[in-house]
Amino acid sequence: MNIPATINAGTDRPLLDGQTFNIWPGCAPGSEGLTLKEEIVQRSTEPTKVNNRFAWKILNPTLTVYLPKKSNGAGILIAPGGGYQRVVLDKEGEEIAFWLTSLGITCFILRYRLPGEGHQQGSDVPLQDAQRAMRIIRKKASTWGLDPNRLGIMGFSAGGHVASSLGVKYHHQVYQSIDDIDEVNARPDFLILGYPVITMLDEFVHIGSRNQLLGKQPTKKRIAAYSNELYVTKATPQTFIMHAIDDPSVPVENSINFGLALKKARVPVEMHLFKDGGHGFSIRLTQGKTCRLWPELCAEWLKSIGIIK
Length: 309
Known about the structure:
Helices cover 25% and strands 18% of the residues. The protein is an alpha/beta fold.
């Protein structure tokens, strides 16, 4: 893919496939004075066959655009995982975007700041970036040929915590408004959560994500404040969840308890729990496992709620 140079989100240009743009017009809030230099690390031993990259030391969060051949007007913001230590770029980013664009959906991969890299209000920087990204997409929807009422967010693992945080805290003021984009509603119209980190409570916590997000000795108050199952209301967006019961990293109860909270709040929810799949299967690692069915099930759900028409 020929990727144009990074531009600012304020542009009114039409979208280009592969285009990357900064979501903040200057330094992101709370990152002033930091001297991080972003790195992209290749973990694959055979990158000519399959990429396995991640980004970290992210100072300027970005969106990268993936356009369908024929748009149906829907858009999805993708928040990859990485345990809040890194942002996975291929398995839970680009490969997911390729699948979604085949359904006619315009995709935006969010490269969000990581909470443990020295930012002020570090625990909130992923949510700050997610709110800002959704506001940009909705603000520019008409220019970009998108329906402002068919915009969702999809997150995997720790990215599922980013996505569910936006779903339950889209209206929380976690940064000071800087321009008219910040007056736009940040509520996603739907959530798609893959083996998500949801809770910070001890019983079912993914300790690595919590250590990065809240530090190694958070108070009970802060633990509760970042446990998203506790913030579900009737205004939380309709949600699709998938998780493998044999997940050794993020207990399946993260998904179950979030799903039950949605049910209690009478929010429409569809949840699929697969007997095998482990953690981090995305699309790439599903062969021979029951979890291979999740993309088809998710596509059917998107049709059922009118996102794919």
